[in-house]
Amino acid sequence: MFKGYLCLVLHGHLPFVRHPEFEDFLEEDWLYEAITETYVPLISVFEGLVNDGIDFRLTMTLSPTLISMLGDPLLQERYLKHINKSIELAAKEMERTSWQAAFRDLARMYFNRFSHARDTFLQYNRNLTLAFKKFQDLGKLEIITCGATHGFFPLMDTCRASVRAQVKVAVNHYESVFGRKPNGIWLPECGYHPGHDEMLKEAGIRFFFTDSHGVLHGSPRPKYGIFAPVYCKGTGVACFGRDLESSKQVWSSIEGYPGDFNYREFYRDIGFDLEYDYIKPYIHPDGVRINTGIKYYRITGQGNNKEPYVEQWARDKAASHAGNFMFNRQKQASYLNGLMGKPPIIVSPYDAELFGHWWYEGPMWLDFLFRKIACDQDEIRLITPSEYLQENPRNQVITPSLSSWGYKGYSEMWLQGSNDWIYRHLHMASQRMSELVKIFPAVEGLRKRGLNQALRELLLAQSSDWGFILGTGTHTSYAVKRTKEHLLRFTRLYEELRSNSIDEGWLADIEYKDNIFSQIDYRVHQ
Amino acid sequence: MNILNKVKEKIKKLVPAGFTLKRKKKPFAAKTPVVGIEKEMPSFQETVVADAKFSHPEPSRPARFMQEELPYQYDQDRIVLQVRDPRWVHTYWELRNQTIDRLKSRLGDDFKRARKVLRVYDVTNIIFNGSNANSFFDIQINDFASSWYIDTGHPGCSFCVDLGLMLADGRFITIVRSNVVQTPLEGPSWITDEEWMIPEDMFARLYGMGFGLGRSSPVGGAWQERIKQGIFSSGLSSSPVRKELKERGFWMKVDCELIVYGATEPTAKVAVQGKPVNLRPDGTFTLRFWLPDGKQHIPVKATSGDKLEERTITPIINRETK
């Protein structure tokens, strides 16, 4: 008997990393790894489900920066080169491990995976957004948008014009890609500040998500806790609270699934393990060892001793973990149903790139979960937020609380000793952008190009990813570079616009480098 | 209210005091490269996991970027206030030189004896006009500071900060005033909506479940390791207390690989251990194998292009690891 809804959300996002000025740029690998390890495996799961007639629902963010990179011809070309090299390495590995059956089978597994990734990539005309769009058009997937460049909104509250620009640019971009407006948004880092729902409403967005305390500490007190959405006071935009129990089942270090000893060990990559001269053509041209994506070991245990990965064991575990997850949701839904007197909605959001990349078996787990939910039970039903709101339009009105899903639940991950220096510059740039819009309410030609580029640079500087990397305190040089680079470009544009002395050659150069959002209109920043 | 307080107490107990966020990446670290209580908190764990999205080169890598510096100041008098969490706010400011000069000439000797102060006003539920604050407190700052973290101690309240001078005679002079911010609540609201009433004990249960303290989990105890540290404890976020135990991480590994290489006529066919091998255009070939312990016979057989002649050479390799 039906007891409640389960709303699974995968948040797919990578910051805009594209460096045409370099032949080979290490951080672009973030995208290539995510394509091979996360996006293609997810698409394959969806394809399998549709082919087998298994109904499912999944909500998925595709951030505007991610969509832009997936659609960029230069990055597409580079991905193809990247995956071809991976296939070549896997083929060599099959030979090298001939006398080691366990490893040879794994080398073959990677060879097949990489080849499949290339085939899928080519099958969708090199643009995987089209694959996701296909499943949205089939009604299985609800794709939602995100901040244009994943800016952390709570720390932009003193310049709401920037929040507005992040939302509007994202919504316009979504519309140009999917042919309709998005119903929902994933606030970057799940960062909500009271009042920002106004900007969402202006842009036609009907729902967003917060972490559990965003709803639980809202006012007035939410009658159903996080197990029913609430409408924001004054705007009526719906807010869904994250369920921590289901999150923890996946990420907790004690009972979290990805730590199972039969699963693949993330930290043992042949890029680091193998002899230098042999692996050199497949690591960074600087000679720095990096991940190749070929990892032969299972987690094995607590210590450093690692045993070879066994595909079948991991598969069995993924199936049993999917069963466990479903069983817990059934119990949870049925208990809540008794307590609330109506079907609860359990909202379980995860970072998409960690499925397959960090948790290698994640996509497989999801596949088992969808199949079990469809075939083995009738207590929980998968649903998207749009469908839920259609079926359950009457919800309580509250003001949710400031919150994020970052470390400690608020803004500290992005506001601490290591990264707080960026805000005086970011805020000043926001203020100046608004000033420019006031001075030049409607211009054409070169000045318009300059203004549009200024907004691009501002948005790119605002990515929460830079603050996050600075906050983790390791390998921060790229995050510093990006923050400064975009701010410096913005500042120069600001000064050249003010003094009417735009250097067209330079402008063309940064338009070519930071080519995101070709349709941008600077006037949204107000 | 008792039940709700109990839930809060329960959550509080599970929250240890003081944390540092540090991520160590060792070549042979297990999937959870952190030790102690920290790793039991999903929000911490998620941070570690989320960082895996961004693979980084090793730190020894030379700096690739030479860059201009950002401006030190923007020639404005401004102070900006933003919320970090329910108890802490962050402020940064800058003052133009001419503003300081003007104060100097206006105040004369008083200026030299004055101290720079942040005055933090509680402006909850009022429209602040400069003199009607509910309360305020001062923080003395030094001349070099340009930002500050302030422990307000009050969730769910509104604050505004003046950067000013405290004169020797106790007078306070405002130089710049910040925007107003409101800290979030750190527990459920006391305000309820008549239309959406729920008995206290039921809300307490839903509230606990929302934080993962529910009853449906089969693992009972384990999932009571609670999360959102800081939410129910006061001001512990500023001073990391824990010391990390130094692990002895010395290690070594050794492995062997075998390179088999040779040459024949470019038109010949070569098989190694029965498996065909691709020749380079000049007739050379190279194979590389991971070498297990024990004896390996590696017959290399070449057949001439016209299939009339054959040669076989068989290296025998013995690996023994002690």
Which helices and strands occur, and which strands form pairs?
The complex is a heterodimer of chains A (526) and B (322).
Chain A (H helix, E strand, L loop, with lengths): L3 E9 L16 H23 L6 E5 L1 H7 L2 H24 L4 H23 L5 H9 L3 E6 L13 H19 L6 E2 L10 H6 L4 E4 L1 H5 L13 E3 L5 E4 L2 H8 L18 H4 L2 H4 L31 H30 L4 E7 L10 H14 L4 E3 L2 H7 L5 E2 L23 H18 L5 H17 L2 H9 L4 H22 L5 H10 L13
Parallel strand pairs in A: 1-2, 1-8, 1-9, 2-3, 3-4, 5-7, 6-10
Antiparallel strand pairs in A: 6-7
Helix pairs in contact in A: 1-4, 1-13, 3-4, 12-13, 15-16, 15-18, 16-18, 16-19, 17-18
Chain B lengths: L1 H12 L28 H10 L26 E6 L4 E7 L2 H11 L1 H5 L1 E8 L12 E6 L6 E5 L6 E9 L5 E6 L3 E2 L17 H11 L46 E7 L5 E4 L2 E3 L6 E7 L3 E4 L2 E4 L6 E4 L2 E4 L3
Antiparallel strand pairs in B: 1-2, 2-5, 3-4, 3-6, 6-7, 6-8, 9-12, 10-11, 10-14, 13-16, 14-15
Helix pairs in contact in B: 1-5
User: How many domains of chain B, as an integer?
Assistant: 3
SS element count, helices of chain A? 19
Task: Please provide the ordered H/E string of secondary-structure elements of chain A.
Answer: EHEHHHHEHEHEHEEHHHHEHEHEHHHHH
What is the assigned CATH homologous superfamily of the largest domain in chain B? Immunoglobulins
Tell me the radius of gyration of chain B: 35 Å
Main sheet overview of chain A: 6 strands, parallel
Report the strand count of chain A: 10
CATH third-tier fold name of the largest domain in chain B: Immunoglobulin-like
Low-confidence stretches of chain B: 14-42, 215-244
What sequence of helices (H) and strands (E) makes up the elements of chain B?
A: HHEEHHEEEEEEHEEEEEEEE
Q: Give the class of chain A from helix and strand content and strand pairing.
A: alpha/beta
